[in-house]
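Hey L., structure's done. Input below.
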Amino acid sequence: MNFTTEEIAVLSAQMDQQLQELRDQEKSQFGASKSTSPIDNEEQLLEKQRQQIAENTQEAPDTFLQKYGSQAKELLCKESSELSKQWQKWGDLRNEDVLEKLGSVLLIMGYSGAALHILTVAISVYVIRVGLNTFCEKYC
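Output:
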């Protein structure tokens, strides 16, 4: 799949903005409190992305992410995949790589237009935030 250069720039900026919002929210909400588990914190922090998934798929986020994980297993969770190698080496993923790869899975699943863009950003932020390994363990 190939997003245009302009689309990649816009989607990448949206990813960066959402990731920064999550960091800011985490600092203000959970910085001083250790009363909830890290998993509960992540679910609360990722509520915006979960809502976007639900609104654009008409499915519960976890149900959709299971389906998505099944479709993206080779791309995300196989140790020899490009994204997995990048994650293992750097502990991070380039926005452009994530958008292209994860967007292609959504395209295969039948999403297009605005829903494709929204879901690509939401899932990309979700994967980066929880970590590739954790995402794969939970959804693949």
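The chain has one domain: 5-28+39-139. The mean pLDDT is 87.

-- N.
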